[in-house]
Task: structure prediction
Amino acid sequence: PPLFIQRYYLVAEVMKNHNVESVIDFGCAECRLAPFLKQVPTIQQVALVDIDRISLEMSRFRIKPMVYEFLEKRLKPLTVEIFCGSATDLDSRLMDFEAVSMIELIEHLYPDTLEAVRENVFGRLQPRLVVITTPNADFNQLFPGFKGFRHADHKFEWTKEQFQSWCDNTADTWGYEVNYTGVGEAPEGFTHLGFCSQAAVFQRKVGHSCKGEKSIGSECYQKIEESN
Ligand code: SAM
Result:
């Protein structure tokens, strides 16, 4: 499958392996991750969040149940909601979600926004699991005649080392353990470059939860759609 689909499989697989029941997908864009999360039997709550209202409005249909879902009922009920809002803000309705995914979001953020997102996710929301994916700049040399960034809206593309040092620092600061993986393998002889899309999986360390100290947000997101 194409790379973007491989990223959805990766995220769904991580959620499945960690028995996740509730997930927030920040920067959900066209809500394409939703059908993959639906395949994870433990998941009961999905919140899809993006600042681009038009993209969300046009993607409402993606969270509607498919015909086969009426024939083959899930064992556990599932609610999927689409919200318009920013990953820099914490909506009180999403405070207790267990996991966060951010697929190809961070490279679209200016440094101050990226920092605010990091503070919000790791410092305030403090989910037990976070999955982040971003392009691997080391891999770009494998694209013939490549110059600049993979996408015009990218504010940066990090090498493996840059990404891992940002993630290690994040993990140290907020009490997480981090492991690295990715999708899109390099051809033989170039595997040292790493994956085309690099990914980090953060797990909150036991005893490191500061849940009681979480600041309470308000209902700052706008709900666009909900489906059961
Ligand atoms: N995650 C999507 C996927 O895998 O299909 C792709 C993400 S797209 C490349 C980046 C998205 O981030 C855009 O839809 C953009 O509107 C969104 N975005 C940018 N800044 C944001 C913010 N502060 N909070 C939430 N979403 C944001």
Notes: Residues 8 and 33 are 6 Å apart (CA to CA). The chain has one domain: 3-227. The pocket of S-adenosylmethionine is lined by residues 4, 7, 26-29, 32, 49-52, 55, 86-88, 103-105, 108-109, 113 (CB under 6 Å).
